[in-house]
Every structure is written in C-alpha cells, then in structure tokens.
Amino acid sequence: MQRAAHQILDHPKIFDDPLALRIIGVEAESALRARLKHFQKPPVRDMRAYFAVRYRYVEDELARSVQRGVRQYVILGAGLDTFAYRNSLPDAFLRVFEVDHPATQQHKRNRLEQAAIAIPDSVSFVAFDFERQGIADALRQAGFRCDEPAFFAWLGVARYLSRDAVMSVLTAIRSSATPGSEVIFDCPFYPSPLQRLRQWAHRAIANRRAKKPRLTYFGPSSLRGDLKRIGFSAVKVLGPEEMEMRYCKDRPDGLRVSRQGFLVMARV
Questions:
Q1: Which of 5, 91, 188, 254 has its CA 20 to 30 A from that of 53?
Q2: Which of 237, 232, 216, 230 is nearest to 168 (CA)?
Q3: Which among 24, 34, 28 is positioned nearest to 110, based on CA atoms?
Q4: Tell me, what DSSP letter sits at residue 115?
Q5: Residue 262: which H helix or E strand, with range?
Q6: Mean pLDDT of all residues in 1-23
Q7: pLDDT surpassing 90 at residue 200
C-alpha cells in the first residue's frame, strides 16, 4: 500500500513501480485513494519514503551486479514485489527466484492472476518458511546455481525473525553463494526508551489487528562484526542520513526518510 501510495502522492518518484496499484487490487486501490490524507501524515510519509528508498537502493545495486555479470536474483520474502513482472531484461538473461512462505506466495499468485499480470518464464517460486527450513536446499531444488554469483534482496523480514533465524539465513547465503555475490537487507534500529514504552502501550492493539510484533533489533556496528565473522568480505551500512543524501536531497516536497531502520549490503 505504501509503495502504491508513493506512485500517486510523491513527485518526482524515488521508486517507479507501474504495477504497484494493479497488484494490490481494485478494492485496496479504492481504499487507498479514499485515505490519501492519512498517507500524508508526517510519520506515514517518512515511512513511505523509507520503503521507496530501500526498493530503489536494491534495484540500483542489482543493476550494477547485472553489469558485472550476475545472472541470478533471489528475493527473500518476496511478498508483492513486482520486479520480475516489469523487468525489461530477456528471460534468459536474469533468473529471478521469489522465496516466501507458501501462504503468502499463493496470495501473490492469486493477485497476479486477478490483475492479469503475466508470470515470465524467468521466475521461479520457492515456497519457504524462514524459521523452519534451510534456504540453501530450497534454492538448489528450484534450480539455483551455487557455482554462479547471485544477488540477494531481503527486505522487511529480518525484524520479524529471531536473531538466530536471521543469522542462520545470512550464514546459509554466505556458504551457498560464490565470490562476487551480494545481499542487501534491512533492520530496525534499537528503539529508544520512549519508543519502547509506546510499543508496549500499543502491543495489545497490534496483536488484535494480527500484525506481527517486532522481535529482533540490531546495532549497525555489532551487525557488521557478525557478518565479518561468518565470512562476508565487505559490509556497507546505509543509515537514514545517507539514504536522504542519495535519494531525497533538494526535493521540493520535503520528503524525508523514517529514522526507524537501516540498510546493509554485504559481499561474499
């Protein structure tokens, strides 16, 4: 919904996704357009900017990887990501592996069908539960080539997993990917004491709405050390200030990035 709202409300766009409105469906689009004032509230705008920036950053870095010869793109927790359906590269040029929970994946396939969005031959759907399965085996069974470099994107998932599960997935990526592979993922900052009080106060409401509470937080410095220890050769952290300088500088609408999270790029 935030990605779709960005297409309507923000100009110039940070992230251009012409399929965002189609894939959420007619009812969701109508609900979105009826609540545009809500999406212009400062905290909601800031979060929308963060979502737009993280997708833009991933696809900018993916383009650089493809120029270097990478031919495999793995989207972990793909959700309603639309890259594979607006990708202009030939099917044989870049293989896209969409990895997600079976129920979420089925919902997406239903949305694609209802929106008449064609599924290209370059896409492989990989049903997977991050808390219970091994990612390396699931990818190999779907045709992933462990002897070729790949680009991994993992957005909006790590915060909902245990720390052990997060490190297990990253370790599996490191062990199954060849040199030249890269992964980008996002994490929430440790909350301040005031934010913790607010989270505690709203937890009951969030649970009633069936929203997953955040389970895991990371500090950029400690996470960088963890990644180096499991074998990543280079780690780059992009915080809100860097995101703004790169993607929001001198915007006439004053769009700014939420201070809630940071992006990490690690190279094998």
A1: 91
A2: 230
A3: 24
A4: T
A5: strand 261-267
A6: 97
A7: no
CB-based burial label for 216 (10 Å; 0-12, 13-18, 19+): middle
What's the confidence (pLDDT) of residue 39?
Answer: 96
Cα 180 to Cα 87, 174, 232: the distances in Å are: 22, 11, 11
Instruction: Name the helix (H) or strand (E) containing 264.
Output: strand 261-267
Tell me the C-alpha distance between 197 and 243, whole Å: 27
Of 172, 170, 180, 179, the residue nearest 225 (C-alpha): 170
Torsion of Cα atoms, 201 then 204 then 208 then 213, to 10°: 80
Contact partners, residue 83, CB within 8 Å, separation at least 6? 59, 62, 73, 75, 96
Both tokens assigned to 50: 């963060």
Residue 253 φ then ψ, to 5° = -90, 0
Distance separating alpha carbons of residues 103 and 167, to the nearest angstrom: 24
Report, as an integer, the average pLDDT of 92-98. Answer: 94
Give this prediction's pTM: 0.90
Q: What pLDDT does residue 194 have? A: 46
Cis preceding-peptide flag for 179 (omega within 30 of 0): no
Average pLDDT over residues 158-186: 92
Residue 105 has pLDDT above 70, yes or no: yes
* Rg, Å, the chain Cα set: 18
